[in-house]
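Quick start: what a row looks like.
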Amino acid sequence: MAKEINREYINWIQNISLEEKLSLKNLSAKKINEGFCYKLSFGTAGVRAKRGFGPSLINKYVIARYTKGYILALFAIYGEKAVKQNGILIFKDNRKDNKYFSTIIFNVAKKMGVKAYLPYNNEIETTPFLSFLIANYSFIGGINLTASHNPPEYSGMKFYDKIGKQIDQKMIDKINYFLERENYDFNLDESNNDLIFLDKKYYQFYINRLLNEIGFDNHFANYNDIKLTFTNHHGASLKIAEKILQKMKVDFYLVDKQKDPDPNFTNSKIPNPQIKSSFNLAIKESNKNNVNLIFATDPDGDRFGVCYRKNGHWKVFSGNEIAVLSLNYLLERADLENNNYFVVRSIVTSNFADFILKDKKVKIYESLTGFKELFAVVKLHQDQKNKCLYVWEESNGSTINMMTKDKDSFQNLILLLEMVKYYQAKNLDLVDVLKSLQAKYGYFVMKQTMHKLNKNFDINKFLDKFIDRKNNQLAGLKITKIIDMRKDNKYFAKQNIIFIYFNDYSFICLRPSGTEPILRIYFNIFDSDSKKAINNYRLLHKYFVDYKF
């Protein structure tokens, strides 16, 4: 065991309970190393790791320490009096131990004099609802216990600022500052006798705002000519989604095997609506009930996916495709004459929508990956004259109305249903509309792959190979431009990211994970000829599939 691991291990062994001590001593050397090899760090959305003993994993001591660091950061930025007066929210999804962890957070906050509110009846609840409440009421922050779409063994924490968006780097730096000066508290208050719960009325406030403000039509009208299968992948979104669908009078079906809040994700081992296989049970349910449309959410209800059956074939729309369809619809119906609209997308997101936006003379702003970055850009540009129409990134997340400052699957559920009804009246469906846009503007292949890196893999040397290419070709395709974001540029801080362009719209993006040994490759391959676009994608995909990482 390395010295630093040994020191931290001894500290835990000396301070945890006898029962925990026995469990920790019985762990294998590999498991001990996994739990004590490093400290957690903030990723794109909070902190996330497997559950287990040690500072490298998620457990009650890590949860308590991060909570204290977060509250101290709130004190430093907003003032202790304001934080204590307004209080914070503590939400959770269906992950194992989240109810218990939320009690730990509540008691840490209570000890620091901060009022903390849990959802009504201590139920599981979603990320967008948390963001909405902070953005529209007096709560000064919030924590959501979730690992989003990660496998069942993972847990994590998302942190929110007083405007309802995920915390920015300034607050992350403050939290890290306090974490460096705070020791672990091994004598935690685990009581749950005086928990404070939200009033039930807030759910109705949110649902009414959604139904009244999303899209263009009356959503209390009858939508029963639309049949929908809905799945929440064992997660937290079912309650609000059901109320929305009932109020819209949609003829909807649930995936019974995935509807209960199961922490083991028994029937949803990949609870990620980006992945085609996550729709398998929903497709079976849809075939049984003669349904052509599926809407899926991830466990914390911010990310969503859409699947549509046409001529017996099920089409799973990518995040980029859903965004193009949604934007095209919004621009078709919005009052562009009397509004100065703009949109915001992340830098790794496809630029397919740019064609439509430029046609309509709508401004496009870019941000770094993650909704905390996207909403920082929204905040920068939105004022009385300029209104944000849509915020999105390729990973199946978007927001239409800025009442929520994070990805909001419920907003997209309502917009999707309105969009389907609108096109039905024109004898069109989602596949038809996407094909018409491709026929008008050109064909895009928009995909993402992930590659595990071995522990000795030098990511910077790997990225350097592409910067130093002398033949200006990759997989036989001519390179027209390379952007190395590891160097300073006028738009963003340094990022461990490289873009390789093959024409004005075709690029691949190489983006290593900041917290895991993973390389993400984003393919955005464009050509006016669909066969050429597909062939070029295949050449590039094969190059990286064959690469020895």
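That is the whole record. The chain has five domains: 1-34, 38-199, 217-315, 320-440, 442-545. Residues 60 and 428 are 52 Å apart (CA to CA).
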